[in-house]
Recover the amino acids of this structure.
């Protein structure tokens, strides 16, 4: 059977009515305490038509892990209610909604971070100071932050969680040999570098159970000869596949060396590699803006689901148009 963007698909036990979803994109409109507000409710409700599911922007699990000062967060029970408003507004459009849980690690916003932490004391660039090498207590705290964030995500009514393990933030920092030089059980071998991610996923599963969809976003290339390749990332994922329901394949962010230009479908080859190794639905993203390209990716089985980002910022009904609705 040849799939198209209009074909239904499942993420775990969650049925999606089609294969077009909205990629997570920060809106930089959180309050100073990282609360979501009316802006977010309208922003997401306006874009909930056409797509079968949306992943809301990076949402901080810790006040010390915000990527930007105006990010939203889920690091206290008080954050639940405003997020619930977003969920309800999107559900009214019969669209599923996931939350993206994140911790910036060494790339947490210098403006709102009291103590920068990371796997090893290596600064990202001149704009960020050298992070404190995380102690076992720091690691335990981060795992606890994710556990509580997962509990709150469920309470807010989200249909699933996306773990942000891409773009050079904390979970990728542990995975990558470029930022993780540890010699303890969290560094060195792949099994050790994936340990934090595995422990975070175990903690999340304890909270949400087996049936709740949990997916991950990874950077499948680090654009460095010493960095992770798509095959390395696929190999790391095999250690945590049993906790996951889908993999969302992005790239870059661990070093300030992004490619200057991108072409249509520039990250699809990475998704295709991951798909060879991981037997979960694979989400492709990155300049997939036409039904022809999206359908070709699905027909060739390079990925199972297509995420679109920037066009939805300019035109909230972009997905509907792609679907011919
Ligand atoms: C304004 C903006 C904000 C973004 N914020 C996030 C984010 O919070 N989390 C994330 O994983 N990716 C984020 N991204 C990356 C997008 O999810 C997506 O991968 C990227 O824009 C490529 O897809 P596109 O060509 O369809 O836009 C952001 C991108 C943009 C343009």
């Amino acid at each position: 059977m040849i799939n198209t963007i209009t074909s239904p698909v499942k993420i775990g036990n969650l049925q999606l009515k089609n294969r077009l979803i909205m990629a997570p994109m920060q809106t930089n409109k959180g309050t100073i305490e990282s609360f979501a507000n009316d802006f977010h409710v309208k922003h997401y409700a306006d874009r909930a038509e056409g797509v079968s599911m949306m992943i809301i922007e990076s949402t901080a699990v810790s006040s010390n892990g915000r990527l930007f000062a105006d990010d939203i967060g889920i690091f206290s029970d008080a954050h639940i209610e405003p997020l619930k408003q977003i969920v309800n507004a999107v559900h009214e459009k019969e669209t599923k909604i996931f939350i993206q849980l994140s911790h910036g690690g060494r790339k947490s916003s210098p403006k709102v971070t009291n103590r920068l932490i990371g796997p090893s004391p290596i600064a990202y660039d001149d704009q960020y100071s050298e992070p404190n090498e995380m102690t076992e207590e720091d690691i335990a705290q981060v795992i606890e932050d994710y556990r509580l964030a997962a509990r709150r995500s469920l309470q807010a009514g989200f249909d699933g969680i996306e773990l942000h393990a891409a773009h050079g933030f904390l979970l990728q920092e542990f995975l990558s040999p470029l930022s993780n030089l540890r010699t303890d059980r969290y560094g060195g071998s792949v099994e050790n570098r994936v340990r934090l991610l595995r422990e975070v996923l175990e903690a999340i599963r304890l909270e949400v159970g087996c049936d709740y969809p949990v997916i991950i976003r990874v950077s499948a290339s680090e654009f460095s000869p010493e960095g992770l390749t798509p095959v390395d990332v696929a190999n790391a994922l095999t250690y945590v596949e049993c906790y996951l329901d889908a993999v969302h394949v992005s790239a870059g962010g661990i070093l300030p060396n992004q490619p200057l230009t991108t072409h249509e479908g520039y990250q699809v080859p990475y998704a295709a590699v991951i798909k060879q190794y991981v037997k979960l639905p694979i989400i492709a993203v990155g300049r997939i803006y036409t039904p022809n390209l999206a359908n070709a990716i699905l027909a060739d089985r390079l990925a199972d689901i297509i995420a679109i980002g920037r066009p939805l910022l300019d035109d909230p009904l972009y997905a509907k148009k792609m679907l011919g609705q």
